[in-house]
Amino acid sequence: MADENVEQVEEAAAPVEAQADPLEVVTRERDEYLDTLQRLKAEFDNYRKRVARDQQELAARAHERLVGQLVPVLDDLERALEAATEHEEAKLEEGVRLVHRALADALVREGLSEIPTDGKFNPHTQEALLAQPSGEEEGTVIQVLQKGYTLGDRVLRPARVVISAGADG
User: Which fold, 1-110?
Assistant: First the structure.
């Protein structure tokens, strides 16, 4: 314990010149901060590049899966066109129905669903192109001009409908 007290007294008595130069201390701290900042910047750049690459790979896999599901639809369409050149109307109609069903199934597997259009008009999922007088209650969908679709929870295309303007005038 006595040795510790002697060391403390010697340190306090040491001349000011022997202590570290404040400019040197500040310069060393600056260099350490700059080094840390440069490392952090490099790490962030690497992270940004990795995330961009991962997003590209994910998009490529999604496209690959969708195209893989649509190739059989393309094959069916080619068969339907061959039947059309041979003037086999029954086969043509059957081929077109097959293509429609295959395409609809592929899109449903990808999360596409038709917007329901029966009942009251919904401005969030439907677009009213015309209002006509009818025996239906005002605001009721009376005709669907173009089907609407959602992809997941987002409206991909609103349904285009004709709504009732109420009873005949």
Answer: Hemagglutinin Ectodomain; Chain B (3.90.20)
> Given 2.40.160.20, 2.30.22.10, 3.40.190.10, 1.10.287.130, which CATH number is that of 113-169?
2.30.22.10
What amino acid is encoded at 16 in this protein?
V
**The residue to which tokens 């202590």 are assigned:** 19
Per the DSSP assignment, residues forming a β-bridge with 113 are 150
pLDDT tens per residue across all 169 residues of the chain: 555 554 555 555 454 444 679 999 999 999 999 999 999 999 999 999 999 999 999 988 887 887 777 777 777 777 777 777 777 677 777 878 888 888 888 888 888 888 998 888 889 999 999 988 888 888 889 988 888 888 888 888 899 999 988 776 4
- DSSP3 helix / strand / coil % (the chain, rounded to 5): 60, 20, 20
| Residue 160 CA, distance from chain mean position | 25
Q: Dihedrals φ, ψ of 128, to 5°? A: -85, 115
